[in-house]
Design goal:
109 residues; mainly alpha; two-stranded antiparallel ribbon; 4 helices; elongated
């Protein structure tokens, strides 16, 4: 695609706007739009490839992270669920303790 930009000198070209009938000096957006319409299949594959690269990159980073923690995917999500439950129960306990519903001593003594 870059070869066509250089070959046809698209950066210095003038484009015709079919809606307004005006001639428009080329800019990067207009050139992108022209190339996208002319090479729709190639651009579609490039967009798909870009999205999939980001998704696979995030997937790789996550697995490198859990590998560095010596965990499996299943263990990671179970611990995450357990931490969430613990945080919720701890909040309930501290709230009950602040309201005086339970005593702050452990009953030993």
């Amino acid at each position: 695609l870059y070869g066509e930009v250089l070959e046809k000198n698209l950066l210095n070209a003038t484009f015709f706007n079919a809606v307004t009938g005006a001639e428009v000096k080329a800019d990067y957006f207009i050139i992108f739009h022209y190339l996208f319409m002319k090479y729709f299949q190639i651009c579609g594959v490039f967009i798909l490839m870009s999205v999939m690269s980001v998704v696979l990159g995030v997937f790789l980073m996550f697995h490198l992270y859990i590998t560095s923690r010596n965990m499996t995917t299943n263990e990671f999500f179970k611990w995450q669920s357990f931490r969430r439950l613990h945080r919720k129960e701890k909040y309930k306990f501290e709230k009950a303790q602040a309201e005086g519903k339970i005593s702050s001593d452990n009953g030993i003594g």
